[in-house]
């Protein structure tokens, strides 16, 4: 698996991207034998289709990738990746796309070369692409590498990606980029006032921990907080089998912020980065926390536990409170937090929350440019009463079933301090394969955040 561009080669096969309504004009501009070949093979320029034109020696003179119509293109993204998967092995040089579109499609091509082959060899795209003229090849490669890291971390099952393994992945990333890392484990969490991280993870065979990675010496401060629940049984409110099957992905928030950190550090962005990952497994044992327990968080707020399966917000709360003590210029949390978010927007959109309209505008514009769709959800303050149970300051699982993603976000906002803050309630999983996005773990929102960072940190 090589998520990089091919070296420019004079022998690279020209690959022309041709829309349906431009096919006749393209054929008219070609030698007669090429035009007759394309018409004889029935190539129409339909989205995702491919045509190969032979040369006189029996090789490939050129290839065409159908670009469909504006209507068909609007129904997906990374269309060239779909065509790349159909091309024979070789090196291709792209023609027919403006630089902005070429940037997006080139990223999709690199991402199509990803395969999760930790346990068995998998098929992946073998056609290689020369970096198109006018695109920032190093940036695209860094983004692809960050996305691959996120996918790998999510795809690895909990047997090989428990809290200790997630710590190891963080340490490897820190070493690669010269970052520092500190880890607070086990009973030390209580001694250093991280009671909710400890409580959620204490029933696991692997000790709970808070991973704290720092990188950069100057510039504005960015803190990323990622939910690292390496497996979620639901605790004593045990999930049914159907709800537990994908719980290896419940550390998708941590995987996504680590992928984003990889992008930031590889690109050498002028900022000071901090990544906090509360890494736990929500297990069942004699010392598991119980429904009805009342916990006191790092910032002093009391929390009534009405469902042990709403554990992600608990570990994030301590980490957010810790992060807020330094008052960073921007703080972002990412978590596979609620099923309610999936019901609201499905698996493809990244819902996010922020009180900062300027930040939201930057994120929305960046998401479109990065082909990483997001959707702003409301921090609806009138719902605050829904997370106030009466006998404690907060309720971790309000009854009633309404606005589950919003009430979870409101819960987290109580711990995030007064600075600029955004929370992403992501899914982290592709339920079905799509161009450049195989079934399995996936990053969500990271590319949009990367694109928005220069403006967001200048606000």
UniProtKB/TrEMBL annotation:
GO MF entries: manganese ion binding; metalloaminopeptidase activity
CDD domains associated with the record: Peptidase_M17 (cd00433)
Keyword Metal-binding in annotation: no
The EC number(s) this enzyme carries: 3.4.11.23
Gene3D superfamilies registered for this protein in UniProt: Leucine Aminopeptidase, subunit E, domain 1, Zn peptidases
SUPFAM superfamilies listed in its UniProt record: Zn-dependent exopeptidases
Ranges of residues in domain Cytosol aminopeptidase: 307-314
Classification via InterPro entries: Leucine_aapep/pepB, Macro_dom-like, Peptidase_M17_C, Peptidase_M17_N_1
Class of the enzyme per the UniProt entry, highest EC level: hydrolase
Name used for this protein in its record: Peptidase B
One GO cellular component, as annotated: cytoplasm
Organism of provenance: Roseovarius halotolerans
UniProtKB keywords: Aminopeptidase, Hydrolase, Manganese, Protease
A matching Pfam family: Peptidase_M17_N_1
GO BP, one annotated term: proteolysis
Family of the protein in this entry: Belongs to the peptidase M17 family.
């Amino acid at each position: 698996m090589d998520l990089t561009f091919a070296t420019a080669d004079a022998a690279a096969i020209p690959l022309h991207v041709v829309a349906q309504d431009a096919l006749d004009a393209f054929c008219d501009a070609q030698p007669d034998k090429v035009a007759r070949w394309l018409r004889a093979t029935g190539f129409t320029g339909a989205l995702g289709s491919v045509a190969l034109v032979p040369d006189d020696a029996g090789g490939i003179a050129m290839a065409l990738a159908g670009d469909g119509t504006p209507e068909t293109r609007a129904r997906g993204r990374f269309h060239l990746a779909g065509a790349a998967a159909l091309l024979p092995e070789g090196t291709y040089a792209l023609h027919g796309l403006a630089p902005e579109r070429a940037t997006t499609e080139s990223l999709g091509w690199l991402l199509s070369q990803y395969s999760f082959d930790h346990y068995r060899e998998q098929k992946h795209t073998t056609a290689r692409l020369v970096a198109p003229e006018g695109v920032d090849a190093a940036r695209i490669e860094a983004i692809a590498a960050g996305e691959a890291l996120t996918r790998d971390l999510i795809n690895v099952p909990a047997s090989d990606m428990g809290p200790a393994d997630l710590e190891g992945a963080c340490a490897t990333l820190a070493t690669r980029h010269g970052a520092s890392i500190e880890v607070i484990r086990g009973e030390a969490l209580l001694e250093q006032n991280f009671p909710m991280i400890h409580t959620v993870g204490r029933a696991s065979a692997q000790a709970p921990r808070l991973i704290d990675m720092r990188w950069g010496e100057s510039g504005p401060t960015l803190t990323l907080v990622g939910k690292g629940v390496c497996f979620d049984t639901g605790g004593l409110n045990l999930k049914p089998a159907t709800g537990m099957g994908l719980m290896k992905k419940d550390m998708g928030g941590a995987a996504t912020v680590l992928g984003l950190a990889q992008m930031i550090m590889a690109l050498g962005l002028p900022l000071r980065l901090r990544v906090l990952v509360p890494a736990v497994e929500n297990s069942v044992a004699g010392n598991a926390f119980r429904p009805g327990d009342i916990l006191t968080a790092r910032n002093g707020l009391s929390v009534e536990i009405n469902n042990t399966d709403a554990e992600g917000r608990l570990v994030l709360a301590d980490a957010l409170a810790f992060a807020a003590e330094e008052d960073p210029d921007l703080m972002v949390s990412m978590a596979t937090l609620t099923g309610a978010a999936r019901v609201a927007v499905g698996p493809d959109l990244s819902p996010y929350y922020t009180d900062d309209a300027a930040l939201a505008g930057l994120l929305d514009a960046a998401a479109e440019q990065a082909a990483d769709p997001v959707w702003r959800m409301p921090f609806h303050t009138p719902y605050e009463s829904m997370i106030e149970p009466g006998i404690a300051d907060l309720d971790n699982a309000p009854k009633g079933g309404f606005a589950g993603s919003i009430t979870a976000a409101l819960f987290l906002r109580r711990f995030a301090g007064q600075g600029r803050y955004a929370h992403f309630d992501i899914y982290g999983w592709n339920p079905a394969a799509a161009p450049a996005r195989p079934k399995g773990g996936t990053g969500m929102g990271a590319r949009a955040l990367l694109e928005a960072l220069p403006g967001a940190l200048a606000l």
